[in-house]
Amino acid sequence: MIEPKLEVPAELRELAEKTIEQAEKAFGMFFDAATKSMTSVPGPGSAISKQALTFTEQNMKAAFEHARKLVHGTDWQEAM
Length: 80
Hints:
The protein is mostly helical and 80 residues long. The protein has three helices and no strands. Helix 1 packs antiparallel against helix 2. The longest helix has 31 residues, at 10-40. It is elongated, with a radius of gyration of 18 Å. The two termini are 17 Å apart. The model has no long low-confidence stretch (mean pLDDT 85).
């Protein structure tokens, strides 16, 4: 069985890539601000909060990378 190709216009791919970049930049600014605020207010739960923020940041980076791969996918198998 032949897999159908994903015919996505180049303009749409460019728009999606720009949107991903803007979202990634916004999340980066959020994580920077959150990290700075956590280091300025020490407390008993700050280590756990820092670790949770680190895990969240890693998860978001993986999500953005996955989104980029989807944008550049050429068939359903690549998209999955």
